[in-house]
Write a structure and sequence with these properties.
Blueprint: E1 4-11, H1 14-23, E2 30-37, E3 55-62, H2 68-71, H3 74-90, E4 95-98, E5 102-105, E6 110-120, E7 126-136, H4 155-159, H5 165-186, H6 189-197, E8 205-210, E9 213-222, E10 228-232, E11 237-240, E12 246-247
Parallel strand pairs: 1-2
Antiparallel strand pairs: 2-3, 3-7, 4-5, 5-6, 6-7, 8-9, 8-12, 9-10, 10-11
Length: 249
């Protein structure tokens, strides 16, 4: 994969801007990195907080030409790629992936959020996927807004030192190129081992809402479809395709 990195001082959202460029015909491999986002977006319609100069906010354009069901496993590949890229920077502290693709430090706080958004072509195949990555690099605890300070962290907080964002960006893109190539050749199985080794949820009891219905159970890993396998309290297995799992004590 030949990445072409374009830096923007400011944009509304790198995902939104890259989707506009994708619809206008931009090639796979375009990467937008923003110094500041005025309308950064997170999963489930939430806003994404990013402190200018201390975070990496980027989106990469992928054009995998696969059926939507297969493209739906791509967020897990991006999650595995980010976790593997960050791990050497933060060792001996651990890095985990919380389904579907939050990247957590070993204290359970969130280091990085990933938002993959798909655009389908007229034939229903995935025309493009915009993979957005918001990584907290050099923030101190007082840089986080009060409502997320208990749940969020940064590479600096974890490792006790500053990082060069360009160096981290290079590592992220190299890791993603490697794993995206493996996924195109072998599907989700190509990153399954890495995901299982870093799975923050396996064996943990969680609760979540599915179309308003509350569900509680124990996570039993990730299905071939990319869904979370949940063993419900009654013993049945439920495969959950989207949502947010809240860890229970
Ligand atoms: C989440 O955890 O809710 C996902 C957050 C994704 C944030 C990144 S920052 C770069 C890219 N542009 C956006 O507007 N969102 C993603």
């Amino acid at each position: 994969m030949n990445w072409r990195v374009v830096r923007l001082d400011e944009t509304d959202s790198t995902n939104a801007e890259l989707a506009r460029r994708a619809r206008a015909g931009a090639d796979e491999g375009l990467v937008l990195v923003a110094g500041r986002q005025t309308a950064g977006r997170g999963r489930q319609g939430r806003a994404w907080f990013s402190a200018p100069g201390q975070c990496l906010c980027l989106s990469v354009l992928l054009r995998p030409r696969v059926a939507p069901a297969e493209a739906a496993t791509l967020p897990l590949v991006v999650g595995a790629a980010v976790a593997e890229a960050l791990s050497p920077f933060l060792a001996p502290r651990g890095v985990a992936v919380k389904w579907p693709n939050d990247i957590l430090a070993d204290d359970g706080r969130k280091l990085c959020g990933i938002l993959c958004e798909m655009g389908a072509g007229a034939d229903g195949a995935a025309d493009h996927v915009v993979a957005g990555i918001g990584l907290n690099v050099n923030l101190d605890p007082h840089d986080f807004p009060p409502d997320i300070v208990d749940r969020a962290t940064s590479m600096k907080v974890v490792a006790g030192r500053d990082f060069d964002p360009d160096c981290v960006l290079d590592a992220l893109l190299a890791s993603l190129a490697l794993r995206y190539g493996r996924w195109r050749a072998g599907g989700l199985d190509a990153v399954r081992g890495e995901l299982e080794a870093r799975d923050a949820l396996r064996g943990r009891r969680v609760e979540m809402r599915l179309l308003g219905e509350p569900l509680a159970g124990v996570c039993e890993g990730i299905a071939d479809s990319g869904a979370l396998r949940l063993r419900l309290d009654g013993g049945a297995i439920r495969e959950v395709f989207s949502g947010e799992a809240h860890l229970l004590p």
